[in-house]
Amino acid sequence: MTASMLDKAAIILDCFIPSGGPYRLSELSERTGLPKPTVHRLAADLIRLGWLERTGPQYRLGAKLFELGSLVPRRRDLRETALPFLQDLFEATRETVHLGVREGMDVVYLERIHGHEALRLPSRIGGSLPLSCTAVGKALLAFSGAELTDELLSRPLPRLTPHSITDPARLRMTLEKIQVSGLAYEEQEAALGVSCIAAPVFAGGTTVAALSVAVPRERFSPAQLAPAVRTAALGLSRAVRGSS
Amino acid sequence: MTASMLDKAAIILDCFIPSGGPYRLSELSERTGLPKPTVHRLAADLIRLGWLERTGPQYRLGAKLFELGSLVPRRRDLRETALPFLQDLFEATRETVHLGVREGMDVVYLERIHGHEALRLPSRIGGSLPLSCTAVGKALLAFSGAELTDELLSRPLPRLTPHSITDPARLRMTLEKIQVSGLAYEEQEAALGVSCIAAPVFAGGTTVAALSVAVPRERFSPAQLAPAVRTAALGLSRAVRGSS
DNA sequence: TCATGTTGTTCCGTTCCACGGAACAAACAT
DNA sequence: ATGTTTGTTCCGTGGAACGGAACAACATGA
């Protein structure tokens, strides 16, 4: 089980998850556990391929990866059909809007649109967060079958803020409420000062995604946001059915 | 100069540019020029790494690439600061909006937002088109120095539609007009039935991007779009200066 | 200016695994 | 039933990846 050259290249690239930030050769060597000459040689290859870039001593992910990543069908197609509905939702609420799908026990964000005000959030396009800590995640979890919930609860629940739900019983109750109302709420469970409301997107009986609105805690008013989120999720559900 | 395993992996992945569409093993073998057993073995490795996915006989790009691609700093940072301005521009025009940068003699699109109406366009996020055939491209070209224009004109100009500019003299004239007005126009030069207007984004004396509005030919009215595009481009220029 | 640690780079003998032709199996077409 | 294409396995061989060691290019401090 000695790692091949390809594996090592993957290990190097994986270093850049989740920060993406620039690393120097020594840091890469340390973080990957690979000998320095090996990283040096492989990094040169990766640069030649456009998968890495280098300015002085700084290594970064290369533009070619952006190009390839944008073509991944499972991501691109859903994002494309969802975009108009996300626009609608954004215009209706003028708040930060998310589209996410489930990947294992995490939610992966496919899109995130917002206006000028920044709103510090841990969510990034292509990034992932624990299902139990986000509105999108809970919306996905509540409609993905009991087995998934059981498996999730078989391990301790992660915590991103002091408000994250870590009590299994409480999460179960929350999910039941979501199943009844069709809406998931989240209050400062992923980031302090930010609340969130989400709704699931269905296609052919399965839950394929969820979309949400994130709002600064002080001006969070579920009653106003709920209809907009519901409308967008339903519209997207119809559109997804039509395109797949 | 025999290709390493990494090179071959890159060759395989590059097959999926620009269509991204699913390929079968034989097609991959043919398109890459690699022997079938080699593709078979490498594809298995790539699947293990999440860079490819396979359903039955269909190979596709894998989700991991989306994750990595979303982290590429040069792309992500600009897209992030540009998004609010693209939103403004979209709301002002309610038409398809683009953000693009130059890469060699092509324009690469970083973002593309639109409403419900489809509008068949050759532009895709992460995809590239010839500089001379798009409004975004011409806006970039007009403000990237004379040497670049000379080099572009040293080879025959590509043509995407019968309206694409292929006459060097005509392109030069067009670029001069763009330099004066600060706005680039394009009428069915990239796709039939679609017109476009673009403006460059400056940061520290160099042109870092351009943004555009694409409109069905029949309702294209430059006078109405021009101020919105200009405003967005100027706003983004200011924001980019501030963040870099 | 020299001493000292750190980081980046080159060298090269050894090892080991990637390679792909050939043979086989499976799926389709006729 | 028969040919044809596609997917998969096998395996002996060659060559390329490997990484310790030595070197070079900096940076830091006295």
Tell me the CATH superfamily of the largest domain in chain A: GAF domain
Instruction: Report helical residue fraction of chain A.
Output: 40-55%
As a whole number of angstroms, the C-alpha radius of gyration of chain A is 20 Å
Total helical segments of chain A = 9
Instruction: Estimate the mean pLDDT confidence of chain A.
Output: 95
The CATH architecture term of the largest domain in chain A is: 2-Layer Sandwich
Oligomeric category: homodimer
The SSE string of chain A, one letter per element, is: HHHEEHHEEEHHHEEEH
Low-confidence stretches of chain A: none
Distance between the termini of chain A: 40 Å
Strand-residue fraction of chain A? 15-25%
At the first level of CATH, the class of the largest domain in chain A is Alpha Beta
CATH level-3 fold name of the largest domain in chain A: Beta-Lactamase
The best one-word shape of chain A is globular
